[in-house]
Amino acid sequence: MERSRLVNLLLILLSALAALFLAQMLWQVASGYADVILLFVLGWLVSFVLNPVVQKLSQPPLNFSRSVSVALVYLGLVLASVIGVALIAPTLVIQLTEIARRMPEYAAQMPPAVEWTQSQLDRLGVHTNVEDAVRAGAAMLQGYAAAIVQNALGVLTGLLGFLANLFLVLILGFYFTHDAPLLRQITLRFVPANFQDEFRVFSENVDRTFGGFIRGQLIQAIIIGIGTALVMVALQLNFALVASLFAGVFMLIPLVGPFLALLPPLLVALIQTPGVALWVLLALFIYQFAITNVVMPRVLSSAVGMHPLLVLGALLISVKVAGFWGAFFGIPVVGVLWAMFNYFFERWRNQQPDSVK
Q: 251 vs 108, 124, 182, 225, 237, CA distance in Å?
């Protein structure tokens, strides 16, 4: 008996070592194709955003086929993009041109703005050297600008590559969305019959939590962008469109996004009207805090099926464990685990006698 137990233990250890070795080999192979894998992952995430709309079009009273529904969604996406660009592009070009034209003037205004900010911080008892921070930031921006000018062809090539990858992501998203039922059936063939119900529940929860989380992040970015524009317009600051667009895009970046989103309007305020810079910072900080810590946890809780406290806890723990990627994928992953826990718990509970229940 003792010998049999030792043999089983040895087999388990050897199996674990073999699994670790195989995982390492697969990771090395996958690392060589990281860019291709990333395109497929992004296409998969796009399908999460579009799939609920496709399902609505495929159900009564419309009852469109899935092919027609996907085509209508993509047509609507293209039309919305064209209309959005047509409405925003003229003002955006004007503001960017004005920024470029007045850049020397703004550079000359920076020292007084920095001195004013330093005096206000000193008065509030905040001991930090703003001048050194601005000088370091300016040096970094000058380095980036010089690199861009010297390598204009490389920048153009990179931009074309980005647009090509974006097109590929949309194409992959189209196929993931259109063929989602077929892909699920193909995957189901490799799942043992005893676990197919669990796989269906798992697949539905992945669709719901990841899709809800991504839509929530996009909504958050739009809300922050709109709020930034309203604050800047209310305080009569220039370049509200440019600053709010950058603020919204920055909000999609995990961890540092909220801090980066404050910089564009703050820089505009420091250059144009230093006296309102602190008010801009205070107003946007309070607005951003309310959105990210009060409103969005409730929105995400309904999207991923967790209490707002669990959403905040999942975010904090995920950041602690996995850093950048934990901030991005932590909430939907925990949402899937929580849903599966509830599923297995309810099934176990229903199997118990009434006296145990």
A: 30, 28, 35, 9, 21
Q: What b-and-e string marks burial along 160-191, b requiring 16 or more CB atoms within 10 Å of the CB? A: eeeeeeeeebbebbbebbbebeeeeeeeeeee
CA distance 114 to 120: 10
What angle (nearest 5°) sits at the alpha carbon of residue 302, between those of residues 224 and 255? 40
How far is residue 283 from each of residues 17, 195, 277, measured CA to CA in Å?
55, 52, 10
Q: CA neighbours within 13 Å on the CB side: how many for 195?
A: 9
> Alpha-carbon distance 34 to 343, whole Å?
34
Whether this prediction's pTM lies above 0.90 is answered by: no
Let me know if 99 is exposed, middle or buried by CB neighbors in 10 A (0-12, 13-18, 19+): middle
Nearest to 239 by CA among 83, 78, 96: 96
Task: Please give the pLDDT value at position 234.
Answer: 93
Which pair of tokens denotes residue 133? 């921070």
Q: Which residue has the tokens 């309310």?
A: 290
> How far is it, in rounded angstroms, from Cα 10 to Cα 21?
16
Alpha carbons 55 and 69: distance in angstroms, whole number: 8
Across the chain, which has 357 residues, the per-10-residue mean pLDDT values are 63 76 75 80 86 87 88 90 83 79 68 68 67 62 57 65 84 90 86 83 84 86 94 91 90 82 87 83 91 83 78 82 76 83 83 64
Q: Side chain identity at 12, as an amino acid letter? A: I
pLDDT of residue 141: 55
Q: What is the pLDDT of residue 48?
A: 84
Q: Which positions ≥6 away from 90 have C-beta within 8 Å? A: none
Burial of 71 per CB tally in 10 Å (0-12, 13-18, 19+): middle
Helices and strands: H and E segment counts in the chain: 13, 0
Two structure tokens written together for 97: 């041109």
The rounded distance, in Å, linking the Cα atoms of 317 and 338 is 14
Two tokens, residue 14 = 């050897």
Token representation of residue 41: 């992952």
